[in-house]
């Protein structure tokens, strides 16, 4: 006697249905499943960014546990094939490889202190990325992100359009959030940028900052009262010191950078032509040569499409050049 499995009775096949033309799934790989990597994974999953997502880490048991935990929540989400693995097996030919692996930033430690540790980690990671994902776009999140973006470019030999760092995308969001909160308006209506290094030499572009087209500084910085200057300086200092403060309070940052990475990924896979302050290679702009730092950049399915030529004032130009100098001093110490 034949026993029919109950699921066979749920569907009636259509005999005229044709075999579809295969559509290549959107595939992403996250290398590093620490707090930042998993915040990225969670945000990417709930915003339906990939058809396949691979998690890779040297801690294989942790990867297994994270995948299992996330899979149990899949009935609440759009379908994504989630696996643990490496770029050498499950992650071959990925569209985007996101690298969050590296030594963690400790209280009192600057992003630039991490350079030596993370360069060695990246050498090992990137060898397989080049071999098994030769056409991917690389999104670097590990700190110090500008340095690690530059290191990735030099080690992989990839086009500068296909290598970018998360840069000051989060710093820019922090600034917009604080301004929005201060003025009691939606932060998405605030148009302001943090440029330069994702670190202590970054700076706000106050001359271009506006809300619904109305400039925050109507004339020049010097035309402001001392109280206004102090208030704007206070806002920026909160942005620049935010990571240090969060690390002191909870040990790491995670949620906001996960959302920032998702915004960058959506700009790529959906070809949104978004302007984002990702870290990208600069050659010639503002007189800067062969340095990765953050300026407003148009991002689409090809990666870094073009940069925005803002009319910076003299103070801002000098701040950008200073940020480039800080990074150049580190580059000169690298052995690549």
TrEMBL record:
Domain Lactate/malate dehydrogenase N-terminal: 29-165
GO CC annotations on file: cytoplasm
Regulation: Allosterically activated by fructose 1,6-bisphosphate (FBP).
Chain residues that bind beta-D-fructose 1,6-bisphosphate: 176, 191
InterPro entries, per the entry: L-lactate/malate_DH, L-lactate_DH, L-lactate_DH_AS, Lactate/malate_DH_C, Lactate/malate_DH_N, Lactate_DH/Glyco_Ohase_4_C, NAD(P)-bd_dom_sf
Subunit structure: Homotetramer.
Functional description taken from the UniProt entry: Catalyzes the conversion of lactate to pyruvate.
Protein name, per record: L-lactate dehydrogenase
């Amino acid at each position: 006697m034949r026993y029919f499995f109950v699921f066979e009775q749920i569907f009636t096949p259509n005999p005229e249905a044709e075999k579809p033309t295969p559509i290549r799934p959107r595939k992403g790989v996250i290398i590093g499943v620490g707090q930042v990597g998993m915040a990225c994974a969670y945000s990417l999953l709930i915003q339906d960014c990939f058809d396949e997502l691979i998690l890779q880490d040297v801690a294989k048991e942790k990867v297994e546990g994270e995948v299992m935990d996330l899979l149990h929540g899949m009935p609440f989400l759009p379908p994504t094939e989630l696996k643990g693995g490496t770029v050498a097996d499950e992650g071959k030919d990925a569209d985007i490889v996101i690298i969050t692996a590296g030594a963690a930033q400790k209280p009192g430690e600057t992003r630039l202190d991490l350079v030596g540790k993370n360069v060695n980690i990246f050498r090992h990671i990137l060898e397989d990325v080049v071999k098994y994902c030769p056409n991917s776009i690389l999104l670097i999140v590990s700190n110090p992100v500008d340095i690690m973006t530059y290191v990735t470019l030099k080690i992989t030999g990839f086009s500068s359009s296909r290598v970018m760092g998360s840069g000051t995308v989060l710093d820019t969001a922090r600034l917009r959030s604080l301004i929005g909160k201060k003025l009691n308006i939606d932060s998405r209506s605030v148009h302001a940028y943090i440029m330069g290094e994702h670190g202590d030499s970054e700076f706000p572009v106050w001359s271009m900052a506006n809300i619904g087209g109305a400039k925050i500084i109507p004339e020049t910085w010097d035309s402001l009262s001392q109280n206004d200057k102090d208030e704007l300086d206070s806002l920026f200092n909160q942005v620049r010191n935010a990571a240090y403060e969060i690390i002191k309070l909870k040990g790491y940052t995670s949620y906001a950078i996960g959302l920032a990475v998702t915004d960058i990924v959506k700009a790529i896979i959906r070809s949104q032509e978004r302007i984002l302050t990702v870290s990208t290679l600069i050659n010639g702009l503002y007189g800067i040569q062969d340095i990765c730092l953050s300026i407003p950049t148009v991002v689409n399915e090809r990666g870094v499409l073009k940069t925005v030529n803002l009319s910076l004032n003299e103070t801002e130009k000098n701040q950008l050049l200073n940020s480039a100098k800080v990074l150049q001093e580190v580059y000169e110490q690298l052995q690549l």
